[in-house]
Design a protein that fits this description.
Elements: E1 8-10, H1 24-37, E2 43-45, H2 52-65, E3 71-73, H3 80-89, E4 96-98, H4 109-118, E5 124-126, H5 133-145, E6 152-154, H6 161-168
Parallel strand pairs: 1-2, 2-3, 3-4, 4-5, 5-6
Helix pairs in contact: 1-2, 2-3, 4-5, 5-6
Length: 169
């Protein structure tokens, strides 16, 4: 029996809490299966659950099939670039995407550019405390130029430097 009324699911951690769910890769795979089957879920928050790159890839593949999800908060999951790229590649229908504190490198810049270029719905993009640096900022700046929907972009703590901010501004 599939639940037809659940629209928001939060399995993340509160900022001041020491407790977390520690779902890991198994949890990510289960959530990916949920995303494939569920057509009512609009918001999923799974911050700080130790998914790793493989968990990020599983969630990304599920996003390819789920177009009803509007917000994905998947910060602090040690996704690295490898796990985040699959998510970014299939996030064009999301309004909110949070990938903060996931060790994303500048190689994610091209995927973020493509997301910003293709998406007509992305409003909030949280990329704070990663390692996008100046090359990533350049790609993001090019994506912003092609995007009409983005309202909030958080790049705090990405070592983008003066050149990065000049390109974005």
């Amino acid at each position: 029996m599939m639940n037809k009324s659940l629209t928001h699911l939060d399995l993340g951690v509160l900022d001041t809490s020491m407790r977390k769910n520690s779902l890991g890769i198994q949890g990510a795979v289960c959530l990916a299966a949920l995303l494939v089957k569920n057509s009512t879920l609009e918001s999923l928050a799974v911050n700080d659950n130790d998914f790793g790159s493989d968990g990020g890839e599983a969630i990304g593949v599920a996003l390819q099939q789920n177009t009803t999800l509007k917000a994905l908060k998947i910060s602090e999951n040690d996704l690295k670039s490898e796990g985040a790229m699959q998510i970014i590649a299939h996030a064009h229908h999301l309004e909110v995407l949070s990938l903060a504190k996931n060790y994303l490198k500048s190689d994610c810049g091209k995927q973020i550019y493509n997301l910003l270029k293709k998406s007509k719905s992305i409003k909030k993009l949280h990329l704070e405390f990663n390692e996008l640096m100046t090359p990533g900022a350049k790609c993001i700046a090019q994506g912003i130029a092609k995007n009409q929907s983005l309202e909030l972009l958080n790049l705090k703590g990405n070592v983008i430097g003066d050149q990065g901010i000049i390109m974005i501004a």
